[in-house]
Amino acid sequence: MNAFLMIRADATPKMGSGHLLRCLALAQAWRQDGGKAVFLTYCDNKKLSQRVMNDGFEIISIGMPHPDKTDLDQTIQYIEKSKPDWCVLDGEHFDPAFQRSIRKSGIKLLVVDDFNRCAQYHADILLNQNFNADVHKYNVGNDSVKLLGIRYVMLRQEFYQNKRDDGAPPSQQSDSRNILFTFGGSDPNDLTGRSLRMLATLKGLNINATVLVGGGNSRGEEYEKIIADVGFPVELVYDAKDTSSYINRADLSLICAGGTLWECLYLGCPVISFSLNGVQHDILTKLDEEGAAIYLGRVGEVTDLQMAASIRNLLGSDSRRAEMRRISDKLLDGEGCRRVIEKMKLLGVNDEVKI
User: Fold this and answer.
1) In this prediction, what percent of the chain has a pLDDT beyond 70?
2) Fewest CB within a 10 Å sphere: which of 157, 203, 216, 311?
Protein backbone atom coordinates (compact mmCIF):
# COMPACT_ATOMS: atom_id res chain seq x y z
CA MET A 1 0.00 0.00 0.00
CA ASN A 2 1.33 3.42 -0.93
CA ALA A 3 -1.01 5.81 0.85
CA PHE A 4 -0.62 8.89 3.00
CA LEU A 5 -2.21 9.06 6.46
CA MET A 6 -2.57 12.33 8.41
CA ILE A 7 -3.25 11.93 12.13
CA ARG A 8 -4.78 14.76 14.15
CA ALA A 9 -4.57 13.97 17.88
CA ASP A 10 -3.45 15.92 20.95
CA ALA A 11 -1.89 15.27 24.35
CA THR A 12 -2.25 17.54 27.39
CA PRO A 13 -2.44 16.88 31.14
CA LYS A 14 -6.24 17.12 30.95
CA MET A 15 -6.64 14.97 27.82
CA GLY A 16 -3.90 12.53 28.73
CA SER A 17 -1.60 10.83 26.25
CA GLY A 18 -3.86 7.96 25.23
CA HIS A 19 -5.28 9.56 22.08
CA LEU A 20 -1.83 10.15 20.65
CA LEU A 21 -0.46 6.76 21.67
CA ARG A 22 -3.25 4.69 20.15
CA CYS A 23 -2.87 6.71 16.95
CA LEU A 24 0.82 5.86 17.09
CA ALA A 25 -0.23 2.22 17.02
CA LEU A 26 -2.24 2.83 13.84
CA ALA A 27 0.62 4.79 12.29
CA GLN A 28 3.05 1.95 12.96
CA ALA A 29 0.74 -0.58 11.32
CA TRP A 30 0.08 1.79 8.40
CA ARG A 31 3.80 2.17 7.79
CA GLN A 32 4.35 -1.57 8.09
CA ASP A 33 1.77 -1.98 5.34
CA GLY A 34 3.78 0.33 3.07
CA GLY A 35 2.12 3.67 3.76
CA LYS A 36 3.30 7.00 5.13
CA ALA A 37 1.96 8.71 8.27
CA VAL A 38 2.42 12.19 9.73
CA PHE A 39 1.12 13.70 12.99
CA LEU A 40 -0.49 17.11 13.38
CA THR A 41 -0.64 17.62 17.12
CA TYR A 42 -0.85 19.98 20.03
CA CYS A 43 1.36 18.17 22.54
CA ASP A 44 2.77 19.98 25.57
CA ASN A 45 4.68 16.85 26.62
CA LYS A 46 8.07 17.17 24.92
CA LYS A 47 9.07 13.63 25.90
CA LEU A 48 5.99 12.21 24.23
CA SER A 49 6.56 14.25 21.06
CA GLN A 50 10.15 13.05 20.98
CA ARG A 51 8.98 9.48 21.40
CA VAL A 52 6.80 9.76 18.30
CA MET A 53 9.64 11.34 16.33
CA ASN A 54 12.11 8.71 17.53
CA ASP A 55 9.79 6.14 16.04
CA GLY A 56 10.38 7.77 12.67
CA PHE A 57 7.25 9.90 12.28
CA GLU A 58 7.11 13.57 11.41
CA ILE A 59 5.33 15.88 13.85
CA ILE A 60 3.79 19.18 12.79
CA SER A 61 2.85 21.28 15.80
CA ILE A 62 -0.59 22.87 16.05
CA GLY A 63 -0.53 26.34 17.64
CA MET A 64 -3.66 25.91 19.78
CA PRO A 65 -6.16 23.05 19.73
CA HIS A 66 -9.79 23.27 18.65
CA PRO A 67 -12.06 25.08 19.46
CA ASP A 68 -9.37 27.68 18.73
CA LYS A 69 -10.06 28.71 15.12
CA THR A 70 -6.42 28.44 14.09
CA ASP A 71 -6.52 24.66 14.56
CA LEU A 72 -8.98 24.01 11.75
CA ASP A 73 -7.32 26.63 9.52
CA GLN A 74 -3.91 25.01 9.96
CA THR A 75 -5.28 21.50 9.46
CA ILE A 76 -7.12 22.42 6.24
CA GLN A 77 -4.05 24.25 4.93
CA TYR A 78 -1.97 21.14 5.46
CA ILE A 79 -4.54 18.97 3.70
CA GLU A 80 -4.66 21.30 0.70
CA LYS A 81 -0.87 21.43 0.49
CA SER A 82 0.06 17.79 1.18
CA LYS A 83 -3.06 15.96 -0.08
CA PRO A 84 -3.18 12.98 2.31
CA ASP A 85 -5.45 10.08 1.43
CA TRP A 86 -6.92 9.75 4.92
CA CYS A 87 -7.26 11.88 8.04
CA VAL A 88 -7.67 10.41 11.54
CA LEU A 89 -9.31 12.53 14.25
CA ASP A 90 -8.91 11.26 17.81
CA GLY A 91 -10.14 13.53 20.60
CA GLU A 92 -13.37 14.63 22.27
CA HIS A 93 -12.81 18.25 21.24
CA PHE A 94 -13.19 17.52 17.52
CA ASP A 95 -16.86 18.41 17.22
CA PRO A 96 -19.24 17.85 14.27
CA ALA A 97 -18.28 21.16 12.65
CA PHE A 98 -14.60 20.21 12.67
CA GLN A 99 -15.36 16.75 11.28
CA ARG A 100 -17.62 18.13 8.56
CA SER A 101 -14.94 20.59 7.44
CA ILE A 102 -12.38 17.81 7.09
CA ARG A 103 -14.72 15.72 4.96
CA LYS A 104 -15.54 18.71 2.77
CA SER A 105 -11.83 19.06 2.01
CA GLY A 106 -12.15 15.95 -0.14
CA ILE A 107 -10.24 13.30 1.84
CA LYS A 108 -11.44 10.26 3.70
CA LEU A 109 -11.98 10.65 7.45
CA LEU A 110 -11.66 8.16 10.30
CA VAL A 111 -13.03 9.42 13.66
CA VAL A 112 -11.94 7.60 16.80
CA ASP A 113 -14.47 8.00 19.60
CA ASP A 114 -15.10 6.78 23.14
CA PHE A 115 -18.12 8.62 24.52
CA ASN A 116 -20.73 9.27 21.78
CA ARG A 117 -21.03 12.90 22.85
CA CYS A 118 -21.53 14.43 19.39
CA ALA A 119 -25.07 15.01 18.20
CA GLN A 120 -23.93 13.77 14.79
CA TYR A 121 -20.71 12.26 13.44
CA HIS A 122 -19.35 13.08 10.00
CA ALA A 123 -16.95 10.30 9.08
CA ASP A 124 -16.26 7.66 6.48
CA ILE A 125 -15.34 5.36 9.37
CA LEU A 126 -16.35 5.76 13.00
CA LEU A 127 -14.22 3.68 15.36
CA ASN A 128 -14.98 2.90 18.99
CA GLN A 129 -12.67 0.16 20.25
CA ASN A 130 -14.25 -0.23 23.68
CA PHE A 131 -15.88 -3.29 25.19
CA ASN A 132 -19.39 -1.82 25.27
CA ALA A 133 -19.23 0.21 22.07
CA ASP A 134 -22.23 -1.50 20.50
CA VAL A 135 -24.61 -0.02 23.08
CA HIS A 136 -24.08 3.46 21.68
CA LYS A 137 -26.70 4.67 19.19
CA TYR A 138 -24.36 6.66 16.97
CA ASN A 139 -25.91 9.21 14.65
CA VAL A 140 -23.88 8.82 11.45
CA GLY A 141 -24.60 9.15 7.76
CA ASN A 142 -25.76 6.24 5.64
CA ASP A 143 -22.38 6.20 3.92
CA SER A 144 -20.47 5.81 7.21
CA VAL A 145 -18.98 2.53 8.40
CA LYS A 146 -19.02 1.79 12.14
CA LEU A 147 -16.21 -0.30 13.64
CA LEU A 148 -17.32 -1.10 17.18
CA GLY A 149 -15.84 -3.26 19.91
CA ILE A 150 -12.59 -4.78 21.10
CA ARG A 151 -11.96 -6.53 17.76
CA TYR A 152 -10.57 -3.13 16.78
CA VAL A 153 -8.34 -2.39 19.80
CA MET A 154 -5.19 -0.76 18.42
CA LEU A 155 -1.94 -1.79 20.13
CA ARG A 156 1.58 -0.57 19.42
CA GLN A 157 4.14 -2.86 17.83
CA GLU A 158 6.02 -3.42 21.10
CA PHE A 159 3.08 -5.39 22.49
CA TYR A 160 2.82 -7.71 19.50
CA GLN A 161 6.55 -8.29 19.60
CA ASN A 162 6.70 -9.02 23.33
CA LYS A 163 3.64 -11.17 23.92
CA ARG A 164 4.56 -14.27 25.91
CA ASP A 165 3.69 -17.61 24.35
CA ASP A 166 4.25 -19.95 27.28
CA GLY A 167 1.37 -18.72 29.45
CA ALA A 168 3.49 -19.13 32.59
CA PRO A 169 3.33 -16.61 35.44
CA PRO A 170 6.23 -14.13 35.38
CA SER A 171 7.71 -14.95 38.79
CA GLN A 172 7.40 -18.74 38.73
CA GLN A 173 11.12 -19.10 39.50
CA SER A 174 10.99 -16.78 42.53
CA ASP A 175 9.19 -16.62 45.86
CA SER A 176 8.60 -12.88 45.53
CA ARG A 177 5.77 -11.32 43.54
CA ASN A 178 5.98 -8.32 41.25
CA ILE A 179 3.37 -5.54 41.25
CA LEU A 180 3.14 -2.91 38.52
CA PHE A 181 1.57 0.52 39.07
CA THR A 182 0.88 2.74 36.08
CA PHE A 183 -1.60 5.60 35.70
CA GLY A 184 -0.93 7.18 32.33
CA GLY A 185 1.29 9.89 30.97
CA SER A 186 0.29 12.79 33.25
CA ASP A 187 -1.82 11.25 36.06
CA PRO A 188 -3.72 14.47 36.88
CA ASN A 189 -5.41 12.81 39.87
CA ASP A 190 -2.05 11.74 41.33
CA LEU A 191 -3.10 8.12 41.66
CA THR A 192 0.60 7.31 41.62
CA GLY A 193 1.22 9.20 44.86
CA ARG A 194 -1.86 7.73 46.47
CA SER A 195 -0.84 4.19 45.53
CA LEU A 196 2.71 4.69 46.81
CA ARG A 197 1.39 5.84 50.19
CA MET A 198 -0.89 2.80 50.26
CA LEU A 199 2.10 0.49 49.81
CA ALA A 200 3.08 0.95 53.45
CA THR A 201 0.03 -1.13 54.40
CA LEU A 202 1.48 -4.09 52.47
CA LYS A 203 4.54 -4.44 54.69
CA GLY A 204 5.31 -8.07 55.41
CA LEU A 205 4.49 -9.30 51.92
CA ASN A 206 7.31 -10.70 49.80
CA ILE A 207 6.84 -8.32 46.90
CA ASN A 208 8.64 -5.93 44.56
CA ALA A 209 6.86 -2.90 43.13
CA THR A 210 7.52 -1.13 39.85
CA VAL A 211 5.92 2.27 39.29
CA LEU A 212 5.81 3.77 35.80
CA VAL A 213 5.81 7.56 36.04
CA GLY A 214 4.65 9.17 32.79
CA GLY A 215 6.60 11.86 30.99
CA GLY A 216 3.92 14.43 31.83
CA ASN A 217 4.04 13.73 35.57
CA SER A 218 6.41 16.11 37.38
CA ARG A 219 6.04 14.74 40.93
CA GLY A 220 9.12 12.50 40.87
CA GLU A 221 10.90 14.10 43.85
CA GLU A 222 7.80 13.65 45.99
CA TYR A 223 7.56 9.99 45.01
CA GLU A 224 11.21 9.37 45.85
CA LYS A 225 10.55 10.55 49.41
CA ILE A 226 7.47 8.37 49.80
CA ILE A 227 9.14 5.10 48.76
CA ALA A 228 11.96 5.58 51.28
CA ASP A 229 9.61 4.35 54.02
CA VAL A 230 7.72 1.61 52.18
CA GLY A 231 9.71 -1.35 53.53
CA PHE A 232 10.28 -3.37 50.35
CA PRO A 233 11.88 -2.70 46.94
CA VAL A 234 10.12 -0.05 44.84
CA GLU A 235 11.47 0.98 41.44
CA LEU A 236 10.37 4.26 39.92
CA VAL A 237 10.66 4.22 36.13
CA TYR A 238 10.33 7.60 34.43
CA ASP A 239 8.84 7.89 30.93
CA ALA A 240 9.26 4.19 30.15
CA LYS A 241 9.93 3.42 26.48
CA ASP A 242 9.35 -0.33 26.81
CA THR A 243 6.10 -0.56 28.75
CA SER A 244 5.50 -4.11 27.53
CA SER A 245 8.61 -5.46 29.27
CA TYR A 246 7.42 -4.13 32.64
CA ILE A 247 3.94 -5.55 32.12
CA ASN A 248 5.43 -8.93 31.24
CA ARG A 249 7.40 -9.02 34.48
CA ALA A 250 4.37 -8.23 36.65
CA ASP A 251 2.21 -10.75 38.51
CA LEU A 252 -0.52 -8.12 38.70
CA SER A 253 -1.06 -4.47 37.80
CA LEU A 254 -2.90 -1.61 39.48
CA ILE A 255 -4.06 0.85 36.81
CA CYS A 256 -6.78 3.32 35.87
CA ALA A 257 -8.33 1.85 32.71
CA GLY A 258 -7.51 3.70 29.46
CA GLY A 259 -5.21 2.20 26.85
CA THR A 260 -3.13 0.51 29.56
CA LEU A 261 -6.09 -1.76 30.29
CA TRP A 262 -5.99 -3.33 26.84
CA GLU A 263 -2.19 -3.56 26.90
CA CYS A 264 -2.22 -5.48 30.18
CA LEU A 265 -5.03 -7.78 29.08
CA TYR A 266 -3.34 -8.55 25.77
CA LEU A 267 -0.09 -9.48 27.52
CA GLY A 268 -1.93 -11.58 30.12
CA CYS A 269 -1.21 -9.43 33.17
CA PRO A 270 -3.98 -9.62 35.81
CA VAL A 271 -5.54 -6.17 36.28
CA ILE A 272 -6.95 -4.33 39.27
CA SER A 273 -8.40 -1.02 38.09
CA PHE A 274 -10.16 2.20 39.01
CA SER A 275 -12.43 4.14 36.66
CA LEU A 276 -12.44 7.88 35.98
CA ASN A 277 -15.67 8.20 33.96
CA GLY A 278 -18.87 6.44 33.03
CA VAL A 279 -17.47 4.69 29.96
CA GLN A 280 -14.58 3.22 31.95
CA HIS A 281 -17.04 2.20 34.68
CA ASP A 282 -19.17 0.28 32.17
CA ILE A 283 -16.15 -1.40 30.56
CA LEU A 284 -14.62 -2.46 33.86
CA THR A 285 -17.96 -3.65 35.24
CA LYS A 286 -18.31 -5.96 32.24
CA LEU A 287 -14.71 -7.17 32.46
CA ASP A 288 -15.16 -7.87 36.17
CA GLU A 289 -18.29 -9.88 35.41
CA GLU A 290 -16.35 -11.85 32.78
CA GLY A 291 -13.56 -12.55 35.29
CA ALA A 292 -10.96 -10.75 33.17
CA ALA A 293 -10.24 -7.91 35.62
CA ILE A 294 -10.97 -6.77 39.16
CA TYR A 295 -12.88 -3.49 39.25
CA LEU A 296 -12.35 -1.46 42.41
CA GLY A 297 -14.86 1.26 41.55
CA ARG A 298 -14.76 4.96 40.73
CA VAL A 299 -11.61 6.74 41.88
CA GLY A 300 -13.32 8.92 44.47
CA GLU A 301 -15.19 6.00 46.02
CA VAL A 302 -12.29 3.59 46.64
CA THR A 303 -10.40 3.58 49.94
CA ASP A 304 -6.74 2.73 50.39
CA LEU A 305 -7.78 -0.26 52.51
CA GLN A 306 -9.86 -1.59 49.61
CA MET A 307 -6.89 -1.19 47.28
CA ALA A 308 -4.58 -3.03 49.66
CA ALA A 309 -7.10 -5.82 50.29
CA SER A 310 -7.59 -6.43 46.56
CA ILE A 311 -3.83 -6.66 46.03
CA ARG A 312 -3.38 -9.03 48.99
CA ASN A 313 -6.21 -11.28 47.84
CA LEU A 314 -5.04 -11.51 44.25
CA LEU A 315 -1.41 -12.06 45.20
CA GLY A 316 -2.55 -14.84 47.49
CA SER A 317 -4.37 -16.77 44.75
CA ASP A 318 -2.21 -18.27 42.01
CA SER A 319 -5.29 -19.97 40.58
CA ARG A 320 -7.25 -16.71 40.31
CA ARG A 321 -4.40 -14.99 38.50
CA ALA A 322 -4.02 -17.95 36.14
CA GLU A 323 -7.75 -17.87 35.37
CA MET A 324 -7.60 -14.12 34.66
CA ARG A 325 -4.71 -14.71 32.24
CA ARG A 326 -6.69 -17.46 30.51
CA ILE A 327 -9.80 -15.29 30.10
CA SER A 328 -7.93 -12.18 28.92
CA ASP A 329 -6.03 -14.24 26.34
CA LYS A 330 -9.35 -15.01 24.64
CA LEU A 331 -10.53 -11.38 24.59
CA LEU A 332 -7.87 -9.77 22.40
CA ASP A 333 -6.14 -11.29 19.39
CA GLY A 334 -3.93 -8.32 18.50
CA GLU A 335 -5.47 -7.86 15.05
CA GLY A 336 -7.21 -4.54 15.68
CA CYS A 337 -4.93 -2.31 13.61
CA ARG A 338 -5.00 -4.75 10.71
CA ARG A 339 -8.80 -4.82 10.69
CA VAL A 340 -9.05 -1.03 10.75
CA ILE A 341 -6.56 -0.63 7.90
CA GLU A 342 -8.36 -3.23 5.79
CA LYS A 343 -11.58 -1.22 6.08
CA MET A 344 -9.71 1.94 5.15
CA LYS A 345 -8.34 0.24 2.07
CA LEU A 346 -11.77 -0.91 1.02
CA LEU A 347 -13.20 2.59 1.32
CA GLY A 348 -10.53 4.76 -0.17
CA VAL A 349 -7.11 3.40 -0.97
CA ASN A 350 -6.42 1.95 -4.41
CA ASP A 351 -4.53 -1.09 -3.33
CA GLU A 352 -5.00 -4.82 -3.04
CA VAL A 353 -7.04 -5.66 0.03
CA LYS A 354 -5.82 -8.68 1.98
CA ILE A 355 -8.58 -10.12 4.13
Assistant:
1) 95
2) 203
